[in-house]
Amino acid sequence: MRISNHPVLENTAGDEIEFTFDGKKYLAKQGETIAAALLAHNIRILRYSMKEKRPRGIYCGIGHCYECRVLLDGQVSVRACLTRVRDNMTIVSEREDSNEF
Amino acid sequence: MNFDLVIIGAGPAGMSAAIKAAENGVSVAIIDENPEVGGKLLGQLYKDSKSGWWIGQKIADELGKKLTDLNIAFFLEEQVCGIFPRWEVLLSSGERLHGKYIIIATGAAEKALPIPGWTLPGVMAIGAAQMLTNYHRVKPGEKIAIIGIDPLSLTIAYDMRLAGIHVVGIYLPKKSEFSHMKAEPKQLISYLSNFVHVLPNPFLKLFGKMLKYPVIQNLAITYYPSFGIKVFGVPLHIRKAVVEIVGENQVDAIKVEKVDKNGSANGKMEEVTVDCVCISGGLYPLGEIARVAGCEFAYLEEVGGYVPLHNENLETTQAGIFTAGNITGIEGANVAIEQGNLVGLVISDRLGLLKNSKEIIKAKKKVLLAREEAVISFQPQIEIGKEKIAELWNKRMNE
Amino acid sequence: MQNTIVCRCEEVKLGEIISSIESGATTLRAIKVVTRAGMGICQGRTCRPLIEDCLSKTIKQDSNDVQQLNFGNPIRPIRLSELANTRKG
Ligand SMILES: Cc1cc2nc3c(=O)[nH]c(=O)nc-3n(C[C@H](O)[C@H](O)[C@H](O)COP(=O)(O)OP(=O)(O)OC[C@H]3O[C@@H](n4cnc5c(N)ncnc54)[C@H](O)[C@@H]3O)c2cc1C
Ligand code: FES
User: Where exactly are the transmembrane stretches of this chain (chain A) (predicted)?
Assistant: First the structure.
């Protein structure tokens, strides 16, 4: 789902790094956020809601809504839309049993 | 840690303020929750008839480089969690910054516009699509529907087309408690006619000029073609509303219904397959930190919502707290930059560091000029709104 | 629309908000206490303007009169451990 040739903007280069999401390995571009890297692999579901256990993904994309929370290396409620992927990160979708703040 | 000036938000307003203040010898800290400076600049891309392409990221990079050159203290990937008198700013890492002066430049947030099914993954605010397309360079979806017709959604529809993304159409939202005039073709057309200068397509410009006349507005709605009118190759539907977004675990389709001049459903339902829906509900000034700091607020429709009361120096009702950018009203990035320059000078002056106070007068003029010449505008009555704020301020000061 | 979520964090539906208003919750704060709308992790950043809409539509109040929520620290989630750390320092 990447945009490779943009007619106006310079193309983004960048090394690829590996990360794990819900047990599977994926490649991200250096400097990319978790949400963008996952969407590039067509993954939209980032967590499940507490009450109705319904899937949720990014909504605002700029840090305001907290819909994109994931578990990152054991840390809860990390916003996937603002947090950059680092090499060998382990990310898990947030669910009811992930402890809230 | 102690600073003369602590700036909350590294968008165009916060960054320009930081640069102007630091240039005059003020010690400055700037905080942002993003890993990179730029704020909403980072996603912006549109054609500016005067200067060619407006590429927000380039402008952010230039401002960012100046910040580095001036040795300004950056606190990135840090959320401001609280503010305490006078003045201590609490960051999410637990760090506390102390400032003689504070500038709150937290920008704007998007107004949500609930539609049945809007919590499904694949539904996002239009700003998310802007960031994905222009900054992250990832397609928000393979087949996209946009809900909500306004200068921002039209601009972003264009950006998506430019990036080769398939946008199936731009629709009205279902009429609801939250849709306001966005769901009412008649009101919407008269609102859109205010934005002739920002509507980028020549055909729409012509159309827009005619729409200044109510008679033509009425005709335009009555005879609006059911297949929409194409803007940059994207069908724009002024007589069709998305009434539901459907899907099991993520978006599969939208349900679209024909509506009358006032937005009430009056026709057949059709289903359109999409994997992404972008909702544009408009923007509102994000003032929560100024609230917590105890600044007084006023509600002004003309500027986009609640704003901290401020004077022409961008000073709030709380001593030492200043503000700049979209928190004072929804406008384009150029205005935010000029407001930042102004407030940076004002604070340098308060600290006794500004050599030539005429610069402040010049900076005030530049804010007005930027407002007048804005290529993109969101609130057709922004100037009236700004006058009202000045009146409210004066009234408050005379109490 | 009644079944449509308004507060995405706490999963509060439009119907619940309207009925809270009809049963006497006529301020943002009262609605928050009754329904939990706006109590979630985003602190109402997404739903606050929506609840204002509901209030002004249901009881015909002007936005200027809708009693605003009290805003208080912290405005963003912060871990207690981090607060404690800095108190010491
Ligand atoms: C979705 C969206 C799209 C827009 N598109 C355009 C466009 O195409 N063209 C245009 O001219 N204008 C656009 N605007 C208007 C935009 O707000 C202005 O152009 C300009 O960016 C405003 O500058 P600012 O410095 O006031 O705020 P911003 O650029 O929004 O910067 C504010 C910064 O403050 C940070 N912040 C806020 N709260 C906190 C906190 N608690 N802790 C830490 N950091 C915080 C934010 O992360 C952000 O980086 C858009 C606005 C939005 C919301
Ligand atoms: S998508 Fe809203 S905070 Fe990440």
Answer: none
CATH fold of the domain at B123-279 = FAD/NAD(P)-binding domain (3.50.50)
User: Which chains pack against B, by 3+ Cβ pairs within 8 A?
Assistant: A, C
A19, with CB counted inside 10 A (0-12, 13-18, 19+), is: buried
Q: Under CATH, what is the fold of the domain B2-110+283-398? A: FAD/NAD(P)-binding domain (3.50.50)
Please report, for chain A, the start and end positions of each structural domain, with discontinuous segments joined by +: 16-93
Ligand 1 atom at shortest distance from the alpha carbon of B13: 25
Does C86 reach chain B within 8 Å, measured CB to CB?
Answer: yes
CA of A69 to the centre of ligand 2 (A): 8
The one-digit pLDDT tens for each residue of chain A (101 residues) are 899 889 889 887 779 999 999 999 999 999 999 999 999 999 999 999 999 999 999 999 999 999 999 999 988 899 999 999 999 999 999 987 765 54
d(C-alpha B208, C-alpha B1), whole Å: 54
Considering CB atoms only, which of A12, A36, A57 is closest to B121?
Answer: A57
- Which chains neighbour A (Cβ–Cβ under 8 Å, 3 or more pairs)? B, C
Cα B18 to ligand 1 centre (Å)? 16
Q: Which whole-number Å values give the CA distances from B165 to B158, B202, B241, in the listed order? A: 10, 22, 22
Angle between helices C28-35 and C14-22 (to 10 degrees): 120
| Torsions phi, psi for C47 (to 5 deg) | -95, -15
* B93 pLDDT more than 50: yes
Helix intervals (H) in B70-150: 126-131
Grade residue B245 by pLDDT with cuts at 50, 70 and 90: very high
Question: Do the first three CATH levels of B2-110+283-398 and B123-279 match, i.e. the same topology?
Answer: yes
For residue range B149-179, what is the model confidence (pLDDT) as tens digits? Answer: 998 998 899 999 999 999 999 999 999 999 9
| ipTM of model | 0.95
Query: For residues C26 and B108, which has the higher predicted lDDT (pLDDT)?
Result: B108
Using a CB-CB cut-off of 8 Å, the residues of chain B touching C49 are 111-112, 284, 305
Residues with CB under 6 A from ligand 2: A 58-61, 63-68, 79, 81
Q: First CA to last CA across chain B, in angstroms?
A: 37
| DSSP one-letter code for B183 | G
Q: Which of A38, A46, A56, A68 to mutate to test the pocket of ligand 2 (most atoms within 8 A of CB)?
A: A68
- For chain A, positions 43-82, list CB contacts with chain C under 8 A: 49-52, 56, 59-60, 64-67, 69, 77
Task: Domain ranges for chain B, please list them.
Answer: 2-110+283-398, 123-279
Of the bound ligands, which one is closest to the alpha carbon of residue B56? Answer: 1
Write out pLDDT tens, residues C22-76: 999 988 889 999 999 999 999 899 999 999 999 888 776 655 555 555 678 888 8
What architecture is the A16-93 domain classified under in CATH? Roll (3.10)
Nearest Cα residue in chain A from C76: A64
Structure tokens at B393: 């301020």
The total number of residues written for chain B in this structure: 399
